[in-house]
Amino acid sequence: MASDNLHYYAHPFARRTSVGVNVGGVIVGGNAPVVVQSMTNTDTADIDGTVAQVAALHHAGSELVRITVDRDESAAAVPKIRERLERLGLNVPLIGDFHYIGHKLLSDHPACAEALAKYRINPGNVGFKDKKDKQFAEIIEMAIRYDKPVRIGVNWGSLDQELLTTLMDRNQAAGAPLTAQEVMREAIIQSALISADLAEEIGLPRDKIILSAKVSQVQDLIAVYAELAKRCDHALHLGLTEAGMGTKGIVASSAAMGILLQQGIGDTIRISLTPEPNGDRTREVQVSQELLQVMGFRQFIPIVAACPGCGRTTSTVFQELAQTIQNDIRTNMPIWREKYPGVEGLSVAVMGCIVNGPGESKHADIGISLPGTGETPSAPIFVDGKKVATLRGPAIAEDFQKMVADYIENRYGLGAKKPEAAE
Asked: 85, 100, 214, 235: least CB-packed within 10 angstroms?
C-alpha cells in the first residue's frame, strides 16, 4: 500500500504549464524558476524609509518588491524611490499595490505609472456598482499604454459581494448542492477568471496577466489554487493571506504552499508573515527561499546542517558555531553571489557529538564534529568526504570558520580548484 504513494515524495513534479510574464526583467511563469517576492510595510510617501526597506528586502533575496500606492503622496513618491534605487545600483522591479482609487492615481501620476514594473489590483474593491467595470477598464488601459503587466489579486477578505450573492442565490435555487464554503471558493475562482477574461477583452495580452486567489486557511488555499490551475494557464502568484505571526505563519504558509508547489502549482510566492513589533521584514524572504530550497526547486544560500542536540551535547558550542556560520552566510551572500558563482550550492555540517557527527560531516562539502559530553576534546574536520584535520583547544570555532572561508575561496573563487583532502 505504501508503495502506491511513493511518487508523492519523489523529486518535485513537473511544473504546471503557464504563460510567462515579464515583470521588469524577471520572468514569472512559463519555464522560469519560482520567483520570490515580498512587500514593504513602510509609508510609501516616506521615500527614505521605503528605499531602505526595499533595498533590505532585495539584498535578502526578494526578486520582486511590492509597495503600497494608496494616495497622491505615495504615488508621487514612486518615481523618486525608483530613481534612488537605481542610483544605488538596485534594479529590483517595483509592484504598485492599488485599492479603491488605483485608476485615479495612475491617471494623475503618469511618472508613477511608468516607474512601476507591475500593477496589482483587487477586483473586489477596484470599484463598486456601475463604476466597477469602468474603473477596472481604466487601470487595464493604463497598463496597456505603459506596457505593464497586471496581477489580478482576489482576496476573500475583500471578495466581490455581488458575485458571491449571485452564486449563493443560484446554489439555493438549485437545492443547495454546495456548502457555503464551497460557494465561497467558487466565487474566488470565478472573480479571478472573469476579471482576467475582461482584461483580455479590453486588450491586455495574456502574457501580461498574473492571477492570485488568496485565502487565510490552509485547506481552502489548496482547494482554490488546485481548481484555478485546472481552469486556466495564467501565471499564478501563490500566497496564504493573513498567515499570522511567527511559527504559526511559517507553518501554515509552508504547509499550504508546499503541497501546491509539489503539484507544480505556483509561479511566484510570497510568505505573508505578520512581523513582530519592530521585527525584521526580511524574515518573509528568508522563509520563502528556505521553502523553495528544501523542496529542491531552487538554491539560494548554502545549507548548514546541525544536529538538534541531546544529553550527549550539554555544551552549547556547536549551537553557537552553527548560528554564527549561518549568520555569516546570510550577511555575506549579497557579496558572495557576485564573487563566488555557485556558492549557494555549498553544504556545511556543524555536529555536536560522535554519533552522527562524522557521517553527516562526510556528506557535507565541509563539516565538523564537535566533542560531545564526555568525549575527547577534539573535533575532526571533513572536506569533500575525507578527514583533513583535527582541531583542538579553545579556538576550535574560530579555526573552523576560517576553514569554511578558505574552502569557499578555493572552490568558488576565480581560478578555483577542488581542495585536495589529506590522506
From this structure: 100
Determine phi and psi for 267, rounding to 5 degrees.
-110, -20
Q: Would you say 112 is a known binding-site residue?
A: no
Q: What is the pLDDT of residues 15-58, one digit of tens each?
A: 888 999 999 999 999 989 999 999 999 999 999 999 999 999 99
Place of cell 577534539: 378
The answer for residues whose C-beta is within 8 angstroms of residue 282's C-beta and 6 or more apart is 38, 56, 57, 59, 60, 62
Query: 377-409: per-residue pLDDT in tens?
Result: 889 999 999 999 999 988 888 999 999 999 999
Q: Inter-axis angle of helices 396-412 and 317-339, to 10 degrees?
A: 20
Asked if residues 381 and 399 have their Cβ atoms less than 8 Å apart, the reply is no
Q: What is the DSSP string of 206-224?
A: GGGEEEEEE-SSHHHHHHH
Q: Which long-range contacts (CB under 8 A, 24 or more apart) does 347-351 make?
A: 347/302, 347/303, 347/305, 348/302, 348/303, 348/304, 348/305, 348/404, 349/304, 349/305, 349/306, 349/382, 350/304, 350/305, 350/306, 350/318, 350/321, 350/322, 350/325, 350/400, 351/305, 351/306, 351/307, 351/318
- The predicted pLDDT at position 4 comes to 41
Q: At what angle do helices 47-60 and 72-87 cross, to 10 degrees?
A: 50
Does 353 belong to an annotated binding site? yes
Is 307 assigned to a binding site?
yes
Partner residues linked to 274 by β-bridges: 245
* The dihedral sign for the CA sequence 314, 318, 319, 320: positive
Longest dimension (CA), the chain: 80
Mean pLDDT, to the nearest integer, of 145-150?
98
Residues forming a β-bridge with 21: 28
Distance CA 45, CA 413 (A): 42
The pLDDT value recorded for residue 318 is 83
Measured distance between the N- and C-terminal CA atoms of the chain, rounded to whole angstroms: 47
Q: State yes or no: 200 annotated in a binding site.
A: no
Contact 288, 270 (CB under 8 A): yes
C-alpha cell recorded at residue 96: 504598485
What is the reported pTM?
0.89
